[in-house]
């Protein structure tokens, strides 16, 4: 079992523990804001399950129906996570509105607040793990899950401070207002995750820094070629697809041109994990005298 799958399974377990803690905190205090915080954790668990399924599917090798692999499945899961987050925000708004109308008082419970704070610490630690593993393995769904948890931590801190203010001021409706603020924060997080995931589904190009690195690698390792042009790239989960045209002397043998291509592909693969390189070799009369000049 690879590391991404292990972390995805761990996320489900962590989410269930945190959900139980936050619900206990809500029961001890009766706070609508703490209830909204617990409700967001339900989405955490659901999104972790979606992430696990997506990572399992994305890990399958390429086949005849999917010759470029299954990595984009993670983007679909990330979009689903964003949609579920938005639905959680709607539920939070409903709870906040009911609490505001009822003007229900909350119970000051140091144990309840302490339990919620402990849950936030667990979430913060696991968010760090998700972001670190997600970025190192280039897993968009783990990164999305990590960002969501990080937002959850910030939300929990704000809720705890707000509940403290409710106790100090006696203004019960502040609890519902805080819940609504939590909902807005959750909604914003969902939108950001959906936006980033759609960029991946739309074959977004590699960053300018990565493209500059590719150009430099072609220039440094393309000895014997004349130039390279029409460089294109697109990212699909862990894989970066790269293709370009390589101009060589018209009298160069196929073997020599092939050796140059192998050298470039190896250099790019060593520097950019998950790179999938396609090179179209052209004779010198196809040169555009622009693009990448081979050193």
Automatic annotation (TrEMBL):
Cite the Cation efflux protein cytoplasmic domain residue spans from the record: 207-283
Q: Which residues form the signal peptide?
A: none
Family matches, as InterPro entries: Cation_efflux, Cation_efflux_CTD, Cation_efflux_CTD_sf, Cation_efflux_TM, Cation_efflux_TMD_sf, CDF_Transporter
Q: Ranges for the Cation efflux protein transmembrane domain?
A: 11-202
The membrane topology term of the UniProt record is: Multi-pass membrane protein
Q: So where does this one cross the membrane? A: 7-26, 38-58, 78-100, 106-129, 149-171
Where along the sequence do coiled-coil regions lie? none
Q: Which UniProt keywords apply?
A: Membrane, Transmembrane, Transmembrane helix, Transport
Q: Which family is this protein grouped under? A: Belongs to the cation diffusion facilitator (CDF) transporter (TC 2.A.4) family.
Q: What is this protein called?
A: Cation diffusion facilitator family transporter
Gene source species: Roseibium algae
């Amino acid at each position: 079992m690879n590391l991404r799958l292990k972390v995805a399974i761990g996320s489900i377990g962590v989410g269930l523990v945190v959900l139980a803690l936050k619900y206990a905190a809500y029961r001890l205090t009766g706070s609508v804001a703490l209830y909204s915080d617990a409700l967001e954790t339900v989405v955490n668990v659901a999104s972790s399950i979606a992430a696990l399924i997506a990572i399992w599917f994305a890990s399958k090798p390429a086949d005849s129906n999917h010759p470029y692999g299954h990595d984009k499945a993670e983007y679909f899961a990330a979009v689903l996570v964003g949609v579920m987050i938005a639905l959680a925000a709607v539920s939070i708004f409903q709870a906040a509105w009911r609490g505001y109308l009822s003007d229900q008082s909350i119970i000051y419970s140091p144990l309840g607040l302490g339990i919620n704070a402990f849950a936030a610490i667990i979430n913060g630690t696991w968010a760090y793990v998700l972001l670190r593993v997600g970025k190192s393995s280039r897993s968009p769904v783990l990164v999305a899950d990590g960002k969501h948890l990080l937002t959850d931590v910030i939300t929990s801190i704000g809720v705890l401070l707000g509940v403290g203010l409710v106790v100090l001021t006696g203004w019960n409706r502040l609890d519902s207002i805080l819940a609504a603020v939590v909902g807005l924060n959750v909604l914003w997080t969902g939108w950001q995750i959906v936006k980033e995931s759609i960029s991946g589904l739309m074959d977004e190009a590699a960053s300018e820094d990565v493209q500059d690195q590719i150009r430099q690698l072609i220039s440094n390792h393309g000895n014997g070629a004349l130039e390279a042009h029409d460089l294109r790239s697109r990212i699909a989960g862990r894989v970066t697809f790269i293709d370009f045209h390589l101009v060589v002397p018209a009298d160069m043998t196929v073997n020599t041109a092939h050796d140059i291509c192998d050298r470039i592909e190896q250099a790019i693969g060593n520097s950019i994990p998950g790179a999938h390189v396609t090179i179209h070799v052209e004779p010198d009369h196809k040169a555009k005298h622009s693009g990448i000049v081979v050193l």
